[in-house]
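Re-running the complex after MR caught last week's input typo. The corrected sequence lines follow. Everything else is unchanged.
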Amino acid sequence: MNIKFIEHLGKFLVWMKLVFSKPEKMSMYWKETMRQMNDIGIGSLIIVMLISTFMGAVMAVQISYQLGGQLIPRYYVGYLVRDITIIELAPTITCLVLAGKVGSNMAAEIGGMRQKEHIDAMEIMGVNTSAFLVMPKIIAAVCVVPLLVSVAAIVSIMGAYIAAVPTGLFSGAEYIQGIRSYLETWNIFIMYVKAIVFGFILAAISCYQGYFVKGGSIELGKASTAAVVMSNIAILVADYLIAVLLTS
Amino acid sequence: MIRAEKIFKSFGDQEVLKDINLIFEAGKTNLIIGRSGAGKTVLLKILVGLYGPTSGIVWYDDVNFTALDKRKVRDIRMAVGMLFQGTALFDSLTIEENIRFPMDMFTNKTQKEKLDRVNYCLERVNLTGVNQKYPSQLSGGMQKRAGIARAIVLQPTYLFCDEPNSGLDPKTSLVIDELIHDITIENNITTIINTHDMNSVMEIGDNIALLHDGYLAWEGNKEEVLTSNNEILQDFVFASPFLQKVRDLHT
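Corrected-run output:
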């Protein structure tokens, strides 16, 4: 198990060198990067907004429930919702969801190209397929995921307001006071660091799983699943490491 | 010209190619034939560099292709065109975009120059008016022709065809064979075709190499196929009673 992990890690690192080699033609890479940005960004916007709304709503309800009856001002709910969203839930939950949606799609797309000999065809044309097929996806993910995480954070904070204020858990004024209190801009920095790192992880691991797929449709399905599982594990490990590094 | 020199290839304990020595001449259609599992596809993939040989050398003219680093391999591949068994046309691109792809990637031609070249290649393979169609909207034979058009768009020096007639009816197979043969002669290309289609062997086999169980069992041309006494060749080419009768009539 450990030897296999080290073998994969070594193969992944060597492959990354190929992925980030000089493009044959910048305009083709640019076009592909724009297409990927559209696929990842616009394609995931609805699901990210939907999940974030409920994430914020649930947080508001549960934090209100836990703080209820204690001598803690109600506006603390807003403060806690904001900080938990920014530091943890917006980047982590969004990227776990994106690993499922975008990551499996990337693995299946590249794996399908491998099986239909599209990758061989490009190689024979002289294309560096590792770079052409993977670099635009990684760059697009690293650029777009932070934007999606920003949207998730805003929508989550709004979701908490929508869920709690009309139902009388706290007043709008209290909530707004809470989200305007004790803002640490460092936390926003942590959110973006996480978003960038998670974006890289989900794209790189998913593409790796797809690029090296061997066999038929069953193996492609397994690669797609592995892309999601491995990305999720790597995101959670990175989440912990970033938390240790940036908050200690 | 491409030369395979003492090529051996193993996958684990299984030896797939054993001491293959072959010369593929320019301006001729060079056929690699053999039964399924004889090692034809592995040899073709070694010749284009998709697999490395366990030992041996592949020469492209006087360049040792096997010893080149990845960047130099890519330079050689600019002069290579390949038609895949399943055509390997990109599903999400139109036929025009598929054929234009190598030019988009490697040339600085204007859009008009590219379009002119695409149209010329489509005309050359008798496939006009399909520029905006997707591969899935074409028949198997039309897809093969589109694949040939993409393979020749950068005017290659070397053309590889992996089972160009698989899945095609005999008449369409003949059209594809003739097309490949004509393009080979017109442009003095070194063409290597991997096939087990006997019509191709008898129609366009300028040079034929028969692989059997991973070794080179016979070499010759289409005329010699009929007169050779090689048992493996006879077993392979005249496998059906019908073809045996044809041979008997001929001799």
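None of the earlier attempt is carried over here. The first helix of chain B runs from residue 40 to 48. Chain B touches chain A through 23 residues (CB under 8 Å).
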